[in-house]
């Protein structure tokens, strides 16, 4: 019976779990709500979530008809030390020095490897999605928060302190909204699904003329997208502002790293051309023929699963090879 490889993508709102065969073909996947503490608190041991996650992994294994697991890869938001398997700091989850890999290994009984969720998203899009075949890539995810993954010559960049790609905490001039990191005016308070929701909610509160004021319940990024589809002026202006703001930061990143392609992913990327067009306009104006290809991710919420599974399989095979050489 073939052993399964599991890929997990932990998000600020939902966690997606997928199980793959040895050739990294996705067999089954499921999405669950991410259990997290009150954001005014921090935890170094989200035991309830670990228990839920391990139970879902084993259930998925059974559903896929696999007898055993080989290894598990997990993408976790924030600052992650992949070598130690520790989630050092995740502001949107309340994590503080969480021994993620060790705790999940105890529960599952197989090797567990972790890395930052956007780095794993980048791996996924590079092996099976929009960035397949490219050597130099920037992937940006716009979800509860926002960050970037950087691949140079097919190597994922972690940085000297595992903080490479956290562009979401770069300050936007003129913005003063509070960020979960404790600062004000961070890019992710604008260029993220939650940022788009905030801008729309603020527009309604200020009495601006928009059909979004007629929607029941909290305004979400998909609410703004629905309004844009109907030609709502305020919704269109929000996407224009978000796209231009994000583009101004990505132009700088492009001049520094010279990527062949920039992939936009995450929930807010579903806005498609409403978000991409203003980004492309800024790039055309500032970089002209030197601009990289700019596109949306093609794997949806499976990108992080592919990347996490690839991370786990690569590290497992490498450790297995080292052990075999040691024995010899």
UniProtKB/TrEMBL annotation:
<protein>
    <submittedName>
        <fullName>ROK family protein</fullName>
    </submittedName>
</protein>
<comment type="similarity">
    <text>Belongs to the ROK (NagC/XylR) family.</text>
</comment>
<dbReference type="InterPro" id="IPR043129">
    <property type="entry name" value="ATPase_NBD"/>
</dbReference>
<dbReference type="Pfam" id="PF00480">
    <property type="entry name" value="ROK"/>
</dbReference>
<dbReference type="InterPro" id="IPR000600">
    <property type="entry name" value="ROK"/>
</dbReference>
């Amino acid at each position: 019976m073939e052993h399964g490889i599991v890929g997990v993508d932990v998000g600020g709102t939902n966690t997606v779990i997928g199980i793959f065969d040895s050739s990294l073909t996705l067999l089954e996947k499921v999405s669950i709500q991410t259990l997290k503490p009150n954001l005014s608190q921090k935890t170094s041991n989200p035991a309830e979530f670990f228990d839920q996650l391990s139970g879902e992994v084993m259930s998925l294994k059974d559903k896929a008809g696999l007898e055993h697991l080989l290894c598990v890869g997990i993408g976790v938001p924030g600052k992650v030390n992949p070598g130690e398997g520790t989630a050092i700091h995740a502001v949107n989850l309340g994590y503080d020095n969480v021994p993620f890999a060790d705790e999940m290994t105890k529960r599952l009984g197989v090797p567990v490897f972790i890395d930052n969720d956007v780095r794993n998203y980048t791996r996924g899009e590079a092996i099976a999605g929009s960035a397949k075949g490219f050597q130099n890539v920037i992937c940006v995810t716009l979800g509860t928060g926002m960050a970037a993954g950087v691949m140079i010559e097919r190597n994922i960049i972690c940085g000297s302190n595992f903080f490479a790609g956290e562009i979401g905490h770069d300050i936007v001039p003129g913005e003063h909204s509070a960020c979960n990191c404790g600062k004000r005016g961070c890019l992710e308070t604008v260029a993220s699904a939650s940022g788009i929701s905030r801008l729309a909610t603020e527009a309604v509160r200020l009495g601006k003329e928009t059909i979004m004021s007629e929607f029941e319940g909290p305004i979400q990024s998909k609410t703004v997208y629905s309004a844009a589809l109907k030609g709502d002026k305020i919704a269109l202006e929000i996407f224009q502002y978000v796209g231009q703001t994000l583009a101004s930061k990505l132009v700088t990143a492009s001049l520094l790293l010279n990527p062949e392609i920039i992939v936009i992913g995450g929930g807010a990327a579903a806005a498609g051309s409403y978000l991409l067009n203003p980004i492309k306009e800024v790039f055309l104006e500032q970089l002209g023929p030197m601009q990289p290809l700019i596109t949306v991710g093609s794997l949806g919420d499976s990108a992080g699963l592919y990347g996490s599974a690839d991370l786990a399989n690569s590290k497992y095979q490498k450790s297995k090879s080292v052990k075999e050489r040691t024995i010899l």
